[in-house]
Queue: 2 jobs
Job 1
Amino acid sequence: MRSTSKGRRQFINNLGMGIVAVGMSNTSSFAFSPKSKALKKRSVEVGFITDLHHGYCADAQERLEVFIKEASSRKLDFIIQGGDFCHPIAEAQECMDLWNSYQGEKYHVLGNHDMDKGSKKEAMDFFGMESNYYSFDKGDFHFVVLDGNYISKDGKYVDYGHANFYIEQANRSLVNPEQIEWLRQDLEKTNKQTIIFSHQAFDEIWDGWSSPSRFAVRKVIDDANNSTGFQKVIGCFCGHHHVDDHSYINKVHYFQMNSASYYYVGEGYGSDGSRATYKDAIFAFITLDPSGEITIEGKKSSFKEPTPSQKNHPDAPRLSASISDRKVSF
């Protein structure tokens, strides 16, 4: 979709720690402060779920049913899944049918495990994705979906496919250079404030498994923010890591969104094999208010027993079976 509004003046950044068609027209209108009551626009409401792991978690279909039912009961602008959704195989058709039963707009992010039993192209076709990375507009906001599912092999960037990503961390979870340049151009073209969705993290997650491409992505984000009179990229949302966390880097909010299903604790620590399973489906509803606030309404649950604490898992104090409610300013 093509933007027709001029950029906003920069907000006063208030750190609250507790807390997809590409291209733009050259048409512009007046700049305005989003906090001006006379010009206040409608908030954008998003339903977000990630790391469902259909085909790996026995009750994934039931968890998705809970999300679709609640999302359908709300007046949302769109829903989006953050990757590791299902495999592109016949057994997962029930998952896609349920997802597609949602009557509103819906979007996909590719996750590494979506390519466990097929190629990236097969996963995209199964999901109905025309591109593995893309952008779109909704209301006063611009949304970008990135693909961090590349490995480095013999000096080339290679698509994930058929579980080829089980290699050293430095050579996987990569964003290819062509996509980095596309992101730079996409952010140059939009005059809207932007949210980025990805599977892998671009901040500094405590377990050390952030994307090795995070510095290149953050440089593009910082350059976009420093070249305008307003904060162009305001937030990034990811899944993949199955944690509940938030960080703030160069005036950009980075949200780690928890899995719908479980945390991988390894053999001997889980309530279901190597999985510390959540009692309930975990997902969130995100409100983007043009006046300058991001609000996350997260679902709360608890671990099935035996819990990571009961199993004396070394990271138990950091683990959560919920997505925290948060309200931050931009």
Note: The helical segments are 60-73, 93-100, 120-127, 177-189, 214-226.
Job 2
Amino acid sequence: MEYTGNATSLSGNNTLCHVTIDDFRNKVYSTLYCMITILGFVGNGFVLCVLIKTFQQKTAFQIYMLNLAVSDLLCVCTLPLRVVYYVHRGNWFFGDFLCRISSYAFYVNLYCSILFMTAMSFSRCMAIVFPVQNLNLVTEKKAKLACLGIWIFVTLTSSPFLLSGSYQEGNKTKCFEPPKSNQMNDLLVLHFIALFVGFIIPFSVITICYAMIIRTLLKNSLKKNQTTRKKAIWMIIIVTSAFLVSFTPYHIQRTIHLYFLKKTDSSCEAILFMQKSVVITLSLAASNCCFDPLLYFFSGGNFRRRLSTFRKASSSSVIQGPRKKLSLKEKDEEPLQESHK
């Protein structure tokens, strides 16, 4: 659903625009995708290394974070292909298969990120609001099953994006270009399924979870320790920021744009403005890869202790056996009893 081609191809009516946003599109995409690639690869790669090195200390939160980092890295690995495409003014050099995979990976990451954030928010909510029930509801095994379910659901429901590949236009090979007019009805159906299942429902669940967390923290401000409060507050800030910056503008703009494409009386100025908004919101959607490492740095279970363990494991030349059991103190430092199996 990347609708950023020439203005004439996007008008969907009799309006002919001789001015295009090609230069704007190529500069913005190549610059922002390059920045997101660097930040996303460094941040998520580091988180993944720490989580793998300290995997014997796994909790439900860490399992969600591990899967989130993998999803981000898979997406980030395809962004350099987009950078090359836009640097060369919309000419694709990498074959039809990688064109399909690049589009597919973007949307798999987008909705995996939303659903993993929802799962982590629900997990943290249960730990704070229902600490006793949490011992059975939020476990390592159930977190693994939830992650497996999310991967299967998103990869299958995103499969229609594999149908859109590269094609020849003049002397250039195109990818990520606007849909044909005869595809609009199918895209509308796909869009509303993704909108409700992949955005509105998860966002509603997250909003309810955070309202319950805030209410509980305010009621029990003296009972909850400062570490618990900080983790919960940081999660609320980071996830809410990701939705406000990355997910919400993109889904709102995509809904408006799909209906805009069906209009027959749009002015050239309106068409160009709509195209530029697509470029901005799509870039913001891709930036979700940069938000996700912050969840682990600020809201995960005792990041500094895990980092210390990671450094010792990396610098030591002697192979040491894994720790069989966390100490009582370390368990208390894990995110809100989520280490129970």
Note: The two ends are 41 Å apart (CA to CA).
